Amino acid sequence: MDVIVCMKQIPDLQQIRIKDREPILDNVPLVWGDLDKNAIEEASKIKEAVEDVKVTVVALGSDKIEQGILEPLAMGADEAVLLTDPAFAGSDSMGTAKVLAKAIEKTGSYDLVILGEGSTDNYSGVVASALAELLNLPMISYVRELEVQDGKVKAVRNMEESFEVMEADLPALVTVAQEINEPRLPKFMAIRKAGAKPRHEWGPDDLGLAADEVGQNALSVETLSNLAPEQDRKNIILKGNLAEQIDALVDALTKEGVLGR
Amino acid sequence: MSEILIYSDNDGTALELVSAGKEFAEELGATVSAALLGDGAAGKADDYFSYGADKLYVSEHPALGDFYVGTFAAALQQIVESGDVEFLLIGSTKRGKELAGRVAQKLNAGAITDANAMRVRDGNLEADRYSYGGNTMASQVVTTPKKVISVMPKTFELGPSEAKQGEVVNVDLDLEDPPVKVVERRDKAGDEVNLEEAEVLICVGRGVQSQEDLAMIEELAGLLGAEIGCTKTPASDWEWFSEERMVGLSGKKCKPSLYISVGISGQIQHTVGIVDSKIIVTINKDENAPMFNFTDYGIVGDYADVVPELNQKLKSL
């Protein structure tokens, strides 16, 4: 059985600083999204539970991905497809889905495609849905428990009002929620071995895509501005011993008119 | 004349969008329609007309019994392509959000999800959504001929309603049985809380060490008339709370008069849910917690000391 995991490098959100409301991305390292790690972890668990599973990571990112790709390979992936061509940079969600679909088709065989339920940076959730449509796959989103058996996938997904237990025949696509597992930290030896696993780098030509069909040249959504919301807070840290702090707090809240409504 | 089509699996959210869509339609010189899909769809028509829908597309096709994203996307695609729909606005519930990308792909359209504000701009609809994990707010427009935008529940208020009739189109959809079956539905414990409406909100984070400590927080909530919410960990990982009480990027967006954070570090994924609060109070023992940057009044201290003391004081008032 062939399991495909899609991953995308994103800027480390903890390290983004804001200056004059502009996000500063220079020197911010690229990392895997948290949910991407849940996706690769789940694929590795399937590989451990089911016989004869091959896990392929299809990863989007910059040329700096070379080091980063060792992590999913060490976590259990057998092979990696790197989509690092500069032509792919700046793709929006629909563009990303198109590139992923072509790459997954080119791998030749896919029984189960796993993604995080959203990217950790934008959380738009569009890529997985568009990808399922392009590959014409049944889709189960927001999965917190997953079972693969006898050509079927059974999943529990987390909805607003209920947990839904859903079933589909393979091939299928699922998106996983953060609570589905605890991604493993790869051991040193596994990282060393990961360096020897096969990797392919595919650009637009390999995927049969023209330059004007990808990246910045094929945007369906235009971003007009992207600034930090303005913050206007008093930032008062109350001083004194605990009793004094509490008195000052209750005083302040009373004056603000937010107590005793 | 172009058309704004509304769909949500949550009728309340759909009616908010109908109300807002009516205003946008006036500015754009468009009309507002809505899709009513699934069992009992026809019976909802009066409500949708009363909030301003000009036209309703109704189908109770058997394949629309349980929500399956691919089937509902096919239904919406057929409705959009049968008329002059330019904008498809979908309620950004979990189902709505997965639907947006799928129907957009069917329509060769761009999609924006989780919009939390929207306005008319140069004959298009401009939407705001959080970006970079909530660090920034992106203002975006879809540039394809058909445009799909999913809009967060409660982004718009329900407008006035008046008895009104309009055109009902019983659409004849060509749909296959869903390839994904719902084999069981486990209802979550009935937690009928509405954090978005709370005037006072207390949220707890992973700094709260034990479930027993919730007692003092519940006492504080009682004294303040507050609702209790939480960050992701206490809901998803510890399951102390239903997800109805999760506040932030993947939870509720609240705008109380008074918000108190207890043991919350202040990651952006949570703070986007509370930045519109009038007054923000933070209780955290780590003076470097980013939460203090979002704070009006902060106490650096262990909640286990601060909260009981605050409760005593409030009782004495």
Describe this structure in words.
The complex is a heterodimer of chains A (261) and B (317). Chain A is of the alpha/beta class and 261 residues long. Chain A folds into two domains: 2-218, 3-Layer(aba) Sandwich (Rossmann fold); 231-261. In chain A, 28% of the residues lie in helices and 30% in strands. Chain A is built from seven helices and 14 strands. Chain A has helices spanning 34-49, 65-68, 70-75, 93-107, 126-134, 188-194, 242-256, and strands at residues 2-11, 17-19, 22-24, 30-32, 54-60, 79-83, 112-116, 139-149, 152-158, 162-169, 172-176, 199-201, 221-227, 236-237. In chain A, the strands form two sheets. In chain A, strands 1, 4, 5, 6, 7, 8, 9, 10, 11 and 12 form a ten-stranded mixed β-sheet that branches. A two-stranded antiparallel sheet of chain A has the order 2-3. In chain A, a hairpin with a 2-residue loop joins strand 8 (139-149) and strand 9. Chain A is globular, with a radius of gyration of 22 Å. The model of chain A has no long low-confidence stretch (mean pLDDT 93). Chain B folds into two domains: 3-170, 3-Layer(aba) Sandwich (Rossmann fold); 195-316, Rossmann fold, CATH 3.40.50. In chain B, helix 3 (69-82) crosses helix 4 and helix 5 (214-224) runs parallel beside helix 8 (303-316). Chain B starts with a strand and ends with a helix. Chain B has 317 residues and is an alpha/beta fold. Chain B is built from eight helices and 16 strands. Chain B is elongated, with a radius of gyration of 22 Å. The chains are: A alpha/beta (261), B alpha/beta (317). At the A-B interface, helix 4, helix 5, strand 8, strand 10 and strand 13 of A face helix 3, helix 4, strand 5, strand 7 and strand 8 of B. Strand 10 (162-169) of chain A pairs antiparallel with strand 11 of chain B, so a sheet runs across the interface.
Strand order of the largest sheet of chain B: 5-9-4-1-2-3-10
End-to-end gap of chain B: 62 Å
Please tally the helical runs of chain A, counting DSSP H or I stretches of 4 or more residues: 7
Main sheet specs of chain A: 10 strands, mixed
What spatial form of chain B do the alpha-carbon principal axes imply?
A: elongated
Coarse structural class of chain A? alpha/beta
Query: CATH H-level name of the largest domain in chain B... which superfamily?
Result: HUPs
